[in-house]
Amino acid sequence: MSTSPDGPRGAVARHTAYLPAFWDKSTNSRPIWRIDWGHPGFTHRTPPEATPDHQPTALTRSWEQPAPDGSGETWHHLHRGACLGCPWEGPDRRRADEAVEDAHDHTHPGWHTLPAVPERQGRGWLTHIQHLYPDGWFDRGGPIRTLRTGIEKRHRPGAAPGGGYDIAVRPTKRSPNPVVFLSLPLDNAEEAA
Ligand SMILES: [Zn+2]
Predict the structure, then answer these.
(1) Alpha carbons 36 and 41: distance in angstroms, whole number
(2) Could you tell me which of 95, 104, 158, 192 has the fewest CB atoms within 10 Å of its CB?
(3) What is the distance between the alpha carbons of residues 117 and 147, in angstroms, rounded to a whole number?
(4) What is the pTM of this model?
(5) In this predicted structure, what is the pLDDT of residue 55?
(6) How many Cα atoms within 13 Å fall on the side-chain side of residue 96?
(7) From the CA of 168, how far away is ligand 1's center (Å)?
């Protein structure tokens, strides 16, 4: 095992090293990097398995120190994007959502250029979305980008059609409906052209 102060690198190695510390109640495991709860690869007992391809996840650890960005604020946690298929890790972030976006830059380049779509609705939704996104995108664990108008505006692990992330897109005043919202056929409004 690595003896460097920063420990092992990569999501699988870090979470594997974290688990024994978590169950050893004499150890304060909070400052140890691990896969964030609910994100891909998170486990309570059995070490996570590496994926054969690059797949996004997010790491976290407690921090309780001045922010690494020099802003003078105290950050309670650090977050990093990470990959279940290789030891890649992103920069330290304050928010988990930023780390998730970093991870997608690594695993699914170009994800942020895909259209933002309405949240799941009705029978026609998935068919429509699959036509808007690249062939096989969701099978490769790719994320979906959804417009969020409700309270919940965090990225959601496992909520894309293929089990990837649902990445929240917040409507802005400048472009309240960034893409395709008006072109989505309503469930009961399918009609012959
Ligand atoms: Zn990777």
Answers:
(1) 9
(2) 192
(3) 6
(4) 0.86
(5) 98
(6) 21
(7) 22
